[in-house]
Write a structure and sequence with these properties.
binds glutathione, 196 residues, alpha+beta, Gamma-glutamylcyclotransferase
């Protein structure tokens, strides 16, 4: 969906982030809430040849994979009024044009039992995306991340900041996929540094 189609008739919109958006939204918003969406798992199965990698060595970034038994924790940002058009235009370039993500509306559940779900826009890179890399072992993904760098920075930063967000904001969530990749990537980096 084009940004103008998403905001048509809306005065505010929640946007759910689960990757770099949780630690670097870089767009204007009114408020944010930690919470989750149901029916998806976060996986480092999307390639990135711009922000955190290049054509020769694409980085690995996260996307959402449908799974009825899973939930994914992140942050939702409420964008309102004059922020809407500017924020969505920015995200369209960062996520869709540069990152290959498409948009979808999902139910976002703010943490805390007393809060009802709200509809939120989410950026998802599906398996038919040319940048999609698909499943790999934590060792393979960690090694790829330890060696990838793009126009925005090192792929390791992307991984470590997401892991840091989950530890600090969602300490009750055990994300084995994320933390096993983090452990592998840090081990790889220690070997690379020791070999210098
Ligand atoms: N759509 C996910 C993932 C977003 C994501 O990681 N997108 C990449 C584009 S490939 C990005 O914005 N990277 C910026 C960066 O790595 O600093 C989210 O909601 O956080």
């Amino acid at each position: 969906m084009k940004p103008q189609d998403i905001i048509a008739g809306k005065t505010s919109l929640w946007i759910f982030g689960y990757g770099s958006l949780v630690w670097k939204p870089d767009f204007k918003y009114q408020r944010s809430k930690v919470g989750y969406i149901q029916g998806y798992k976060r996986r480092f199965w999307h390639g990135d040849n711009f922000h955190r990698g290049n054509d020769e060595l694409p980085g690995r970034v996260v996307t959402l994979i449908e799974d009825d038994d899973e939930t994914t924790w992140g942050v939702a940002f409420e964008v309102a009024g004059s922020q809407l058009e500017e924020s969505l235009k920015y995200l369209n370039v960062r996520e869709t044009v540069c990152g290959g993500y498409m948009t979808k509306m999902v139910d976002f559940f703010p943490e805390g039992n007393d809060q009802p779900p709200v509809q939120a826009l989410v950026y998802i890179a599906t398996s038919d995306n040319p940048l999609y890399l698909g499943p790999a072992t934590s060792e393979e993904i960690g090694a790829q991340i330890a060696m990838s760098r793009g126009k925005t920075g090192h792929n390791l930063e992307y991984l470590l900041r997401l892991a840091e967000f989950m530890r600090s904001s969602c300490p009750h969530v055990e994300d084995h996929h994320l933390f096993s990749i983090e452990a592998t990537a840090l081990t790889m980096v220690s070997y690379l540094l020791a070999a210098q």
